[in-house]
Prior knowledge:
Transmembrane segments: 47-66, 87-105, 111-135
Shape: globular
Largest sheet: none
Mean pLDDT: 90
Pfam families: DUF6691 (PF20398)
Order of helices and strands: HHHHHH
Number of strands: 0
Structural class: mainly alpha
Distance between the termini: 35 Å
Strand content: under 5%
Protein name: Sulphur transport domain-containing protein
Number of domains: 1
Number of helices: 6
Radius of gyration: 18 Å
Keywords: Membrane, Transmembrane, Transmembrane helix
Helix content: 55-70%
Amino acid sequence: MKKQYLTLAASYLAGLLFSLGLAVSGMTDPARVVGFLDIAGNWDPTLMFVLGGAVITTFIGYRWVFKQPTPWLAGRFALPTKRDLDAKLLGGAALFGVGWGLSGYCPGPAIASLGGVSLPLVAMLATMVLGWWIAKRIA
Length: 139
């Protein structure tokens, strides 16, 4: 039972750090994302630095984590086993990219933005849930 509470606390801490990082870096503002995607116009490179920070942190962190025999709060590492590129992956990635580009919201920043709820945010989250529901029905 104690492990369950530690896992829950670690999940909350990770979510808090993630949302604080998004908010502090300005990534909860869809205009920043759209500005990053507008490479032919008024390009905003800040998203590149946030993504770069995430890649560097993950690169270093995974090297350390995988030296451990097991995760601290799980019996084994849960890693993806599928490595092939198929139509579902490519189609889903394309749909995700179109939705991200049109709304300026990625799912994580959208959820982190719930503190300043707006009609475009609600519309994006509602259609994201609808897309998830449709995908579950046709998969």
